[in-house]
Specification:
By secondary structure, this protein is mostly helical. The chain has 2 domains: 5-60, no CATH class; 65-268, Growth Hormone, Chain: A, CATH 1.20.1250. Helix content is 78%, strand content 0%. It has helices at 5-10, 14-24, 28-42, 64-70, 74-92, 95-100, 102-109, 114-142, 144-171, 178-209, 216-268, 280-283, 287-312. The longest helix is centred in the last third of the chain and has 53 residues, at 216-268. The N and C termini lie far apart (62 Å).
């Protein structure tokens, strides 16, 4: 597996990057266009065709922390918030509690016997795997944003149903409550299915493609760190949480977090399907910034036109 063309170009290895792009692009023309875009983003002259070139200092890692965290531009700040938000909400909506503690969840729902508990737990893993495969076919056809919003909407309903079923089972002391058992099994399977078609894979795809080239490695690593820390907190607090507010209450809480996540995604995350890394800063700029830039460009154009007219006279 070769290095990515952007990594190679950032180190001045244009010849190797050109070969990788020729192998991964549909046409030679597409490869040339992609090479040109990446060279411009890396600060290398577009007409430079040498196999190895000196790399401008600005493509190195100096100042990346400052540009990303201390004094980011508005568009970079929005990218960072989007990446951190999508990683946080992926884990904070309770996926590890559902998957890792599914035997305990099913036991609380009223399922008894090791064989039945094992069977339902295997069904959870099978469902998760199956729908991840479905997501690979839909990701570039449907788009990231529609799948993500659909995923979290389904997760909210599933968590609410699971909370309802567990609450009913916990308060029913006279034997098993069949409808609650069926509702819990259905909602757990639906939850992991909805997670797998959107929140699971899209978190990693989206966060890897929105950072500008120079900030990509550090930005992606911050997102992964948030993801893993949140996962650890959710996993280690679940037992204390359900003892404090009950099993049903725990999943109602996760459902509330998923609802907040849906609002965040709807209002904050643009669609990135079909866009290159070099387009992302422009894509994440707010409309106000775009309007101000257009006004400035129009003003400069008017001044230049006025100057040209003056020179002509």
């Amino acid at each position: 597996m070769p290095e990515s063309p952007r990594w190679l170009i950032m180190r001045g290895r244009l010849g190797e990057a050109r070969k990788v792009l020729e192998k991964t692009s549909d046409t030679p023309e597409e490869a040339r266009l992609r090479l040109s875009d990446i060279k411009i983003a890396a600060g290398i002259p577009e007409d430079c065709d040498d196999d190895v070139v000196p790399v401008p200092k600005k493509t190195h890692s100096r100042g990346v922390w400052k540009d990303l965290l201390v004094r980011p531009t508005p568009s970079v700040r929005r990218v960072l918030i989007a990446a951190v938000g999508i990683h946080f909400f992926q884990q904070a909506s309770g996926i590890d509690s559902v998957v890792l503690y599914s035997p305990k969840v099913f036991e609380k729902a009223g399922i008894r016997g090791d064989t039945k508990l094992l069977g339902t737990t295997v069904a959870v893993g099978f469902t998760k795997t199956l729908f991840i495969l479905v997501a690979t076919f839909l990701l570039d056809r449907v788009g990231r944003r529609p799948l993500l919003l659909t995923s979290f909407a389904g997760m909210i309903l599933s968590l609410a149903g699971l909370g309802l079923g567990l609450t009913a089972a916990e308060h029913h002391t006279d034997g098993q409550l069949p409808w609650a058992v069926g509702l819990c099994i259905t909602c757990v399977l639906a939850y992991v299915a909805f997670f797998s078609i959107g929140a699971g894979p899209i978190t990693w795809v989206y966060s890897s493609e929105i950072f500008p080239l120079r900030l990509r490695a550090l930005g992606a690593s911050i997102g992964v760190a948030v993801n893993r820390v949140t996962s650890g907190v959710i996993t280690m607090t679940f037992i204390s949480l359900y003892k404090a507010i009950s099993f049903g209450g725990s999943f109602f809480l996760y459902g509330g977090i998923a609802a907040v996540a849906w609002v965040f995604f709807f209002t904050y995350l643009p669609e990135t399907r079909g866009r290159t890394l070099e387009d992302m800063e422009e894509l994440f700029r707010k409309e106000k910034e775009v309007d101000e830039q257009r006004k400035e460009e129009n003003r400069v154009e008017m001044v230049n036109a006025s100057n040209r007219n003056g020179n002509t006279r």
